[in-house]
Specification:
207 residues, 18% strand, single chain, binds 6-hydroxyuridine-5'-phosphate, 8-stranded parallel barrel, 10 helices
């Protein structure tokens, strides 16, 4: 069965990152990389890691349409499997990303896993999910450590896939996130800091 785990390899040391990607890349659905990795190693790391797994670039793009297009065009040259962008900047900003994404799947953020996300962002998930559907997103990001919110979001997701971080280091549980509606679970520190990452992946999938 295809894995539902996305390994968030938030590493800045190239040899450590490549070693880990080679070790786990075929055992997970995808590897997600974020700003620290791309700032440290350059965008060429996207293509390099694509030899090991599907790569999702977590850039949380959140600017005016023209700047979003310029960012997306740079990333599209590396042909990642997917890219994460914000939806809160409005429909025009997301439209511009989807248009420039080429083959990359666009995943929009509708709610986040950190405690402060409840101050401004998470109350607006309803509008953001509707925008993700109508603007051609492939999926959405919703927290895997807030089961109640995740369930509410999953009831309105339509054909969108839900990608859920917040599992492991941020307190969420792998099975609980899946039972609450996640299609894929994003796991960072508890996986890449584990001395036996493959054993950890297997232990999650066995439960
Ligand atoms: P960790 O499992 O180590 O907490 O990492 C989670 C990863 O998911 C990080 O790369 C973080 O930036 C990202 N993330 C998150 O934690 N919460 C969100 O709401 C959205 C994210 O992209």
């Amino acid at each position: 069965m295809e894995s539902k785990i996305i390994a968030s390899l938030d590493l800045t040391d190239e040899s450590k990152l490549v070693r880990m990607a080679e070790e786990i890349g075929q055992s997970v659905f995808a590897i997600k990389i974020n700003w620290p990795t791309i700032l440290s190693l350059g965008k060429g790391i996207i293509k390099r890691l694509s030899e090991t797994s599907n790569i999702i670039c977590d850039l949380k793009i959140a600017d005016i349409p023209n700047t979003n297009r310029l960012i997306m065009e740079q990333i599209a040259t590396q042909h990642p499997w997917g890219v994460i962008a914000h939806l809160f900047t409005g429909k025009d900003s997301m439209e511009s990303i989807v248009k420039a994404a080429g083959d990359a799947k666009v995943i929009g953020v509708v709610a986040m896993s950190n405690p402060g996300a409840s101050e401004y962002l998470n109350g607006n998930y309803g509008n953001l999910v509707e925008d993700a559907k109508s603007l051609g997103c492939y999926g959405i990001v919703a927290p895997g450590n807030d089961y109640n919110l995740l369930e509410r979001i999953s009831k309105m997701k339509g054909n969108l896939k839900i990608f859920s971080p917040g599992v492991g280091a941020q307190g969420g549980g792998y099975n609980k996130a899946l039972l609450s509606g996640a299609d894929y679970v994003i796991i960072g520190r508890s996986l890449y800091e584990n001395p036996d990452p493959i054993g950890y992946i297997k232990s999650l999938e066995r439960k």
